[in-house]
Specification:
The complex is a heterodimer of chains A (499) and B (195).
Chain A lengths: L2 H13 L5 H13 L1 H19 L2 H16 L16 H5 L4 H9 L1 H11 L8 H6 L1 H11 L7 H26 L5 H8 L5 H13 L1 H17 L2 H16 L7 H8 L5 H13 L1 H17 L2 H19 L10 H23 L9 H8 L15 H12 L3 H10 L8 H13 L3 H14 L5 H14 L3 H14 L4 H10 L6
Chain B lengths: L5 H10 L2 H21 L4 H20 L10 H19 L20 H20 L4 H11 L4 H8 L4 H21 L1 H10 L1
Helix pairs in contact in B: 1-2, 2-3, 2-4, 3-4, 3-5, 6-8, 7-8
């Protein structure tokens, strides 16, 4: 027997539990150390399991027949496992131990068969070598092997195949794991590797592509991390792209385009960019929609009335004690409702382009404020209360007359002045209103200043004093208060520059 | 808006001049954005491509390898953006024949040097992206190592007890960085492209 045959014999003995204890211990020790042996044993085990999984009686009969053929030296080219089912009864008969052992001796032949069927398996070619030309004959015949009735065997064999494949994949995965740590590679690159390991490392590096790419990665990483300038430039670009608008036209040009007054030369350039620049398209659409939305006075008026009615019903009882700043509240509401109005605009599709006249701007933005008693004064309370009543009843002239007669402390004059201004404005007496508002603003330290500037600007608009209106609107913008956006919108409408 | 000459733009890029960079963005980005959106890309793709094209040009400038003979800055920028997007499309297995060419580009820009530089930029960009995800300490530590700052000094700056600890920390940081790079699917694609 050749050493190989001996080895396979021992493997089979081990699988069949036929080794004595010392032999078994020795075998198992070797098994732990030798992966090839482990693979072979596993294969044998799988074969054994496969064999045991099928109809044992059926297999036994076939194996016996193979055994007979084999011992007769007649390798007729076929195991003919499925022939002679007439011998079935004989096969079911109880077997002696010798017969059983003889049957299992034929397992190597089953192995050969499986080898043929699963040609991609990583198994040995022992039988090819051992049987020489006879083996060729066996293999030829195996090609025509009738698998009918042996589905179980086939499945089991295929299962083994998958097991082997899985194992192979695991081995491949293990083999691609880096053999050298980051520390080793760093030591090598920094020239700190000991001579004994260095030779081994370099030898490995010459042959191992994986290690080469690992070392390359380390080198490239060093260069990449040192590129501070590139990283800075990248983050600077990112900041610009996040914070800047992506269009190449001025705000003035956008407004002029919307108002249809963009000069011809610029219009061509603007249209060319607008065709491709989706951000600019969105900006133009947004501005157009805002224009349309704020010109929907009927809807805004209706909403304002509904809001007023609700506030009125909720707060009527406490009104005389703490007067809510309805105007300011409604301004907030007006702002927040722009988005809703935009949707409505889209739905209605009835956008009315505004005419941009001064009167239009004035009408859009002038809404007389209500009397806010928390901003009232201590002096001559009864007169102030009476004036408040008149103001709420839109009796503006009476309000003015009464406030003119009121005795108010010198440092609280701004209250009657502001409401007088409002009353004059409601009576369309703009120059008088401006005079009163100016006094409020000049006072310099009261809660009416922003509103006074705002209403003063509106008065100037009505008086067609654009330059003065612009000055007041810029003052309102600088305060960054409630009227900032409205003031900006009016400036845009009037085609003033912002700064 | 002021118009800058090509020479001013190139100098501006080299200096990272914010005004020039803003100018480039406002002047050219929308065209790149339009081109990429027309070719199955998104807004994010467009800003990535635009940004990387400027970086590629910066690398070229650093190497003193950017001379406009037949082209202009605009032509060069668009050609690089187009090239970068074509590479992306290839990765996404989208046929380049279907490309909707809205950017004016110059074929002669696409020389071997550009291809090599773009590959390097892609690789380095990926490394730098992951480097930026490390803790500030790790970033600082690695940078000092790569700049060959003596170990003793590194330990002192970082407030470590010993040089040995500084070295161990460095390995840990580098190990983490390498792990993150290797886990990135983009890195796997780069490796596939290299082989």
């Amino acid at each position: 027997m050749t050493p190989k045959a001996e080895l396979f014999g021992r493997i089979e003995d081990y699988c069949l539990d036929l080794l004595n204890k010392p032999e078994r211990d020795e075998f198992e020790k070797e098994l732990k150390l030798n992966p090839e042996l482990r693979e072979e044993v596993e294969l044998q085990m799988n074969i054994q399991n496969a064999v045991l999984e099928m109809d044992v009686l059926d297999l036994k009969g076939k194996l016996e027949e193979i055994q007979t053929n084999s011992t007769n030296g007649k390798l007729n080219g076929s195991f003919e496992l499925l022939d002679d089912f007439s011998e079935f009864e004989e096969a079911t008969a109880e077997l002696t131990t010798e017969e059983l052992i003889e049957s299992f001796e034929s397992l190597p032949k089953v192995h050969v068969y499986q080898h043929e069927r699963t040609s991609n398996e990583n198994i040995h070619h022992y039988y090819k070598e051992q049987n020489g030309s006879e083996q060729v004959a066996i293999e030829d015949d195996l090609n025509g092997f009738d698998m009918e009735g042996l589905e179980g065997l086939e499945e089991a064999v295929l299962e083994t195949d998958i097991l082997n494949l899985r194992e192979t994949l695991q081995q491949v995965a293990k083999s691609v794991e880096p053999q050298y740590s980051v520390e080793d590679i760093d030591s090598y690159l920094e020239g700190e590797m000991g001579d004994d390991i260095l030779a081994e490392f370099e030898g490995e590096l010459n042959q191992n592509e994986l290690l080469q790419s690992e070392v390359n990665l380390h080198k490239e990483l060093e260069m990449a991390v040192a590129e501070n300038d590139v990283m800075d430039l990248r983050s600077e670009l990112r900041n610009i792209m996040e914070s800047e608008t992506s269009w190449n036209v001025s705000e003035q040009a956008i407004e002029d385009f919307i108002d249809g007054v963009l000069e011809e030369g610029m219009l061509e350039e603007f249209s060319a960019e607008l065709k491709e620049n989706t951000d600019l398209m969105a900006e133009v659409a947004l501005r157009e929609n805002i224009n349309s939305a704020v010109s929907e006075m009927d809807i805004m008026g209706l909403r304002q009335k509904l809001q007023d009615a609700r506030d009125e019903s909720e707060k009527k009882e406490v009104k005389s004690i703490i007067m809510p700043r309805i105007e300011i509240g409604s301004t907030k509401f007006w702002r927040s409702s722009v988005a809703v109005v935009l949707v409505l605009v889209g739905l209605l599709g009835a956008m009315q382009m505004n005419t941009n006249t001064i009167d239009n701007s004035y009408d859009k933005y002038f809404e007389s404020t209500t009397w806010a008693s928390e901003r009232s004064v201590d002096s001559d309370v009864s007169v102030i209360q009476q004036a408040q009543m008149y103001f709420q009843q839109n009796e503006f002239q009476k309000t003015i007359d009464l406030l003119n007669d009121a005795t108010v402390k010198a440092d609280e004059q701004f209250v009657p002045q502001f409401y007088k201004g409002l009353s004059y404005q409601n009576l369309n007496k703009y120059p008088s209103a401006v005079t009163e508002y100016t006094k409020v603003i000049d006072h310099g330290n009261n809660m009416f200043i922003e509103e006074a500037e705002w209403y003063k600007a509106l008065c100037y608009l009505k008086m067609n004093k654009r330059a003065e209106a612009k000055k007041e609107l810029l003052a309102v913008i600088d305060r960054k208060g409630h009227y900032e956006k409205d003031a900006k919108a009016i400036l845009r409408k009037l085609k003033y520059s912002f700064k | 808006m002021i118009n800058y000459t090509d020479a001013q733009i190139l100098k501006g890029i080299l200096r990272h001049d914010n005004l020039i960079l803003q100018y480039i963005y406002k002047q050219y980005y929308y065209k790149v954005n339009y081109f990429i959106k027309k070719n199955q890309g998104s807004e994010d793709d467009a800003s990535d491509i635009f940004q990387e094209a400027i970086i590629v040009i910066y690398r070229k400038l650093k190497e003193n390898d950017l001379i406009f003979e037949k082209s202009s800055f605009q032509g060069y920028l668009f050609s690089v953006c187009r090239f970068l997007w074509l590479k992306q499309l290839e990765k996404r297995r989208i046929e380049r024949e279907k490309l909707n060419d809205s950017l004016p580009f110059q074929e002669d820009v696409y020389d071997d040097n550009l291809v090599e530089l773009v590959d390097k930029n892609q690789k380095y960009g990926l490394y730098q992206k992951h480097f930026k995800t490390l803790s500030t300490d790790c970033q600082k530590l690695l940078q000092m190592f790569f700049e060959k700052v003596p170990l003793k000094e590194i330990a002192k700056i970082m407030g470590y007890k010993s040089e040995k600890y500084a070295k161990t920390r460095k390995y840990k940081c580098k190990e983490l960085l390498i792990k993150r790079i290797k886990q990135d699917t983009e890195f796997k694609k780069i490796l596939e492209d290299d082989t």
